[in-house]
Specification:
The complex is a heterodimer of chains A (464) and B (310). By secondary structure, chain A is an alpha/beta fold. Chain A has 16 helices and 16 strands. Chain B is built from 12 helices and 16 strands. Classes of the chains: A alpha/beta (464), B alpha/beta (310).
Chain lengths: 464, 310
């Protein structure tokens, strides 16, 4: 093997941009064994690693990387399983560049270790080679209900099952996985290959999943306590999509990114053999600059559209992961920066035929520390589109809070919790987007993990 | 264990009975009219929680869509929910082909906010005289509302409208709970000859009946004209909207509807709204959004069954 350049990252292969922009296969192809070992050997194995505190679930990063460097791939997967229920997911969708990799010592002089890509490698290897992971303590008989089978709920469920709890997840949709299934597209996170097996692993720990149960409608938190659950974790995720309140938003052809992505991902509209329809015009405007906007834009592109991302700040402020922005640009997505829609126009039959926008400039920093975009007077312009997708985030779903006495929410309708995830109602815990509003998979997992510790402590104290 | 918990644990244990899938099983099926049928589906959790005004979503089979449907009846003890369906699209046509003992892939609910009167002071509700206007399969979701009110001693008249005599459904069931039942057919083959709106005018203007509240459920166009009629007659009116939906839990926003000057999501803020404030013209346009695809799928289904019959 060639001599390792300690400061240079081992390159990873991706599908060719021209080819991939016409299919839904995964973009990043992952490391081969040789590449993974080579990359793992760059790790300095710091005695006091800075990467570990950078991880919301505090994975023993040098530990699993060292196993990869020694070609002990199964052991690497076991280390990961001690900390995360979804390593193959996290390895793909975590913003490592802002977390563990950002604080990697190597990043000071060169490129950080590709922690995410190595995590993905170890998890994929374990799955492909049939490595069984996860050990549970003997059952303790205590029943815990988890609301939502997204990253937060699944993590909390997995942690509690390992401690011996009898855990049931209640999922509102017909498939478990939450945002991993309805939101993140196939080309970034394969469902059959990656998401399903990781959820199956959680089931192997003894976790039961009941789909088609909407807490707040089918059952309530109170009725779950009546059924004998001793604690409830609310990981119900993001809620109602936000629209701009501009004229023309209810025209045919205007969709929330949630609707567009759910039709395509959960309901598999991109596949000929599934019935759910999806509408994509020749030209599509996607409004917003986060990961969801990138996902919607790249999905529309794959469905054959010419796509424009309309974002009111500049490239530097895009909240999406850098990797996703690069991939979108490579695939030929057009970006209209410093642009804000003011009206959507339609034809006499009620269908979208254009979008009116105004140009912006950056003014003084706002509360978020980012420079506030300000309208440039007289800069209005219009362009033809047949589809508009709003990717502006979501506000928490009020359903659970409004049907549960004593569960307080803040003014943004997020559920109020203390540091350990305990809500204002005894025995009810919460975390993830239901608390914070739209955030990331790994932050939701971190909250689920912390809440599992709090729930364990709560049950033990109650029964001592 | 309280009654609810007992029913649930009994019925839910059915799900695991001998490892065979019992949940969402079709317990009874009845043909009500050409292309219209009712099914009692085993879904104990839904049956235990359903209230008047709510709806549900089904998925017939693996490749099927999420289809929102109204709830016609529910039996908490048996753990079943009754749906009434008109076979129109590809999913509902496949549902029509299913028989007792088959199971639906998914069945989720109840969804939406229960009818307003369910949470109002019953003494106030009793002071009102209700007029329900049911059009076509919209008769099905009217039934549990009328039953709920009648059981609590509220006076309820019902107008049922259908294209012709053959398409009048649930007449006996409705008769057993309504104070007065009026049937109208477009072609005059049964009951009053005319549209439901004509019948409302007949009852109020000619026969001098007084109503303080109207609830109209049926095709969007019928609800539009009913609301226009009751506005003229000054009767506050509730309509139950059935727009396009995907998840039905507030997540997708496909069911956006303008009520007054606000955008509402029919699935979580509704499905019932003030009929005099709903922008029906927008709602009618939004309903056609996937018409081409629906026709294509439906024709593909017909073609498929013709081929199979050859």
């Amino acid at each position: 093997m060639a001599k390792i350049d300690r400061f240079k990252r081992t390159p990873i292969s991706n599908q060719d941009p021209v080819i991939r922009s016409t299919n839904f296969e995964e973009v990043c192809l992952g490391y081969t064994e040789e590449e993974a070992v080579q990359e793992a050997k760059r790790c300095l194995q710091c005695p006091n690693p800075t990467c570990v505190p950078g991880c919301p679930v505090a994975i023993d990063i040098p530990g699993f990387i060292n196993h990869i460097a020694n070609r002990e791939f199964a052991e690497a997967a076991h280390v990961l399983a001690d900390y995360t229920a979804l390593p193959a997911v996290c390895g793909r969708v975590c913003p490592q560049e802002d977390q563990c990799e950002k604080v990697c010592i190597l990043a000071k002089k060169g490129e950080a270790i590709a922690i995410g890509k190595l995590e993905r490698f170890a998890a994929d290897w374990a799955r492909e080679n049939g490595v069984e992971v996860g050990k549970t303590k003997p059952g303790n008989g205590h029943k815990i209900a988890i609301i939502g089978s997204g990253p937060s709920g699944v993590t909390c469920a997995g942690e509690l099952a390992k401690e011996g709890y009898d855990v049931t997840i209640f999922e509102a949709l017909h498939e478990p996985g939450g945002v991993l299934v309805y939101g993140i597209p196939e080309f970034r996170l394969p469902k059959e290959k990656v998401v399903k097996p990781e959820i199956e692993n959680v089931k192997k720990l003894g976790v039961k999943i009941e789909t088609n149960v909407i807490v707040g409608r089918t059952v309530t938190i109170d009725s779950l306590f009546e059924e004998g659950f001793e604690a409830v974790y609310v990981g119900s995720g993001a809620g109602l999509p936000i629209f701009m309140n501009i004229p023309g938003e209810n025209l045919n052809g205007v969709f929330s990114a949630n609707e567009f992505l759910t039709r395509n991902n959960l309901m598999k509209a991109f596949r000929e053999d599934y019935e759910t329809p999806i509408k994509v015009g020749k030209r599509v405007a996607v409004v917003g600059g986060g990961n969801v906007a990138m996902d919607a834009a790249r999905t529309a592109k794959r469905l054959g559209a010419d796509v424009y991302i309309v974002y009111r700040r500049t490239e530097a402020e895009l909240p999406a992961r850098l990797e996703e922005v690069h991939h979108a640009m490579e695939e030929g997505i057009n970006f209209e920066f410093l642009t804000n829609p003011i009206e959507i126009t339609g034809n006499e039959k009620g269908w979208v035929n254009g979008i009116k926008c105004v140009r912006m400039e950056l003014g003084e920093p706002d509360a978020s520390g980012r420079r506030r975009p300000v309208e440039i007077k007289g800069s209005e312009f219009e362009f033809e589109v047949e589809t508009v997708i709003m990717a502006l985030g979501t506000s928490p779903n009020p359903l659970i809070a409004s049907t549960t006495d004593g569960l307080q929410t803040n003014k943004r309708q997020g559920i109020i919790v203390d540091e350990g995830g305990h809500t204002t109602r005894e025995g009810v815990f919460a975390g993830g987007d239901a608390v914070t509003g739209s955030a990331t998979v790994i932050l939701a997992m971190g909250a689920g993990k912390d809440a599992a510790k709090t729930i364990d402590k709560y049950i033990k104290e109650k029964n001592s | 264990m309280d009654k609810r918990a007992k029913i649930l644990s009994n019925s839910i244990s059915l799900y695991y009975y001998k490892g065979e899938k019992q949940l969402y099983k079709i317990v009874r099926k009845e043909i009500l009219a050409p292309n219209i049928f009712s099914m009692d589906i085993l879904a104990p959790r839904v049956a235990a929680s359903a209230k008047p005004g709510q709806f549900l979503i089904i998925i017939v089979d693996e490749k099927g869509e999420r289809v929102p449907l109204t709830i016609c009846d529910y039996d908490k003890d048996e753990g079943t929910v009754q749906i009434v369906v008109q076979a129109m699209g590809s999913s509902t046509k496949r549902l029509a082909d299913m028989v007792e003992g088959d199971s639906l892939k998914d069945f989720v609910g109840p969804l939406g906010v229960p009818s307003e009167f369910v949470s109002e002071d019953i003494e106030e509700v009793k002071k009102r005289k209700y007029l329900f206007v049911a059009g076509g399969v919209g008769t099905a979701p009217v039934y549990p509302q009328v039953r709920w009110l009648t059981e609590r001693g509220v006076e309820v008249d019902v107008i049922m409208g259908a294209k012709n005599k053959e398409l009048v459904i649930l007449e006996d069931k409705m008769k057993s709970v309504a104070s007065n039942l009026y049937v109208a057919t477009d072609d005059g083959s049964y009951g009053f000859h005319g549209l439901v709106t004509n019948y409302i005018e007949e009852l109020v203007e000619k026969q001098g009946k007084e109503y303080n509240k109207c609830v109209a459920i049926g095709p969007m166009i019928m609800m539009k004209f009913t609301a226009l009629t009751t506005k003229k007659l000054n009767i506050p009116t509730v309509v139950s909207l059935n727009p396009i939906m995907v998840d039905g839990t507030g997540m997708c926003g496909a069911c956006r509807v303008t009520v007054g000057d606000e955008t509402k999501f029919a699935c979580v803020h509704g499905p019932e709204f003030d009929g005099h404030l709903v922008d029906f013209d927008e709602a009618l346009k939004r309903q056609t959004q996937y018409k081409e695809e629906e026709i294509e799928l439906s024709e593909a289904y017909n073609h498929g069954t013709e081929e199979a019959g050859k």
